[in-house]
Amino acid sequence: MKHDAETVLTWLERQGTQATRDGMARYAIPSDKAFGVSVGTLKQESKRLGRSHDLAAALWESGWYEARMLASMIDEPQRVTPAQMDRWCRDFDNWAICDTVCFHLFDRTPHAWAKVALWSGRRDEYVKRAAFALLWGLTVHDKQAGDDRFLEGLRLIEREAGDERHFVKKAVNMALRATGKRNPALRAAALTVAQRLADSGQADAGWVGRDALRELGTSRSARR
User: Fold this and answer.
1) What's residue 218's pLDDT?
2) If 0-12 CB within 10 Å is exposed, 13-18 middle and 19+ buried, where does residue 223 land?
3) Which helix (H) or strand (E) holds 100?
4) What pLDDT sits at residue 60?
5) 102 and 186 share a domain?
């Protein structure tokens, strides 16, 4: 069964609640163009809708927060182009849409690694966050990637760890921790980077390193 964007938007509006919109503010998510639909409800709806590149594009263009979240869950990764990734990335205005798109869609595309390298050097806050959210997602979803890819990711992490912006710094930290959990060799490499950052004398880079050391240095993390 084919679905059109207007029907989906009408459904989203009916599902929205003021309580959910009010709760978004607690997590630094803008609610001025949001219906107030929970992520769990969006995931259920994405399964009902199935994959559709064209519907995803139309939902994204609507500009509604939940429509864009849903778009990332139903788009077809193999049909996503580098230009689309750049367009959507420029539209990111909060950490939640950035991370959801990277974890549900971008990290499954053939262009993911190229975008990590490209976006990591950008100045825009959420474009840079996307680079490291994408790297974080790849540690989980790219089962075929060799360690060399992630070692290059660690180089980018170390290079950008001094960014003082909260949403960039948090993503860099999560990418570092996630890389260290992929396998024992990468854990050792991530610990080395984390220690250098912790010893750097720079406030933001030091925080990234110390926080990673706390997690990667635990026996539970080593067992994983």
Assistant:
1) 62
2) exposed
3) helix 95-104
4) 98
5) yes
Length of the chain: 224
Q: ∠ CA 187-149-72 to the nearest 5 degrees? A: 100
8 A C-beta contact, residue 24 and residue 38: no
> Do residues 104 and 214 both lie within one domain?
yes
The tally of domains found in the chain comes to 2
- Domain containing 21 equals 1-75
Query: Using an 8 Å Cβ cutoff, are 196 and 209 in contact?
Result: yes
Final residue of a structural domain among 42, 75, 108: 75
Report the C-alpha gap between 113 and 109 in whole angstroms.
Answer: 9
User: Which residue stretches of the chain have pLDDT < 70?
Assistant: 1-2, 218-224
Can you read off the two tokens belonging to residue 181?
A: 């959990």
Residue 34 in tokens: 């949001």
Residue 157 to residues 8, 37, 40, Cα–Cα distance (Å)? 39, 34, 31
Token couple for 48: 């009902």
Regarding whether 112 and 41 lie in a shared domain, the answer is no
143: alpha, beta or left, given left = phi > 0 and alpha = psi -120 to 50? alpha
User: Per-residue pLDDT tens for 140-188?
Assistant: 999 999 999 999 999 999 999 999 999 999 999 999 999 999 999 999 9
Residues 58 and 107 in one domain: no
How many alpha carbons fall within 13 Å on the CB side of residue 115? Answer: 32
- pTM > 0.85: yes or no: yes
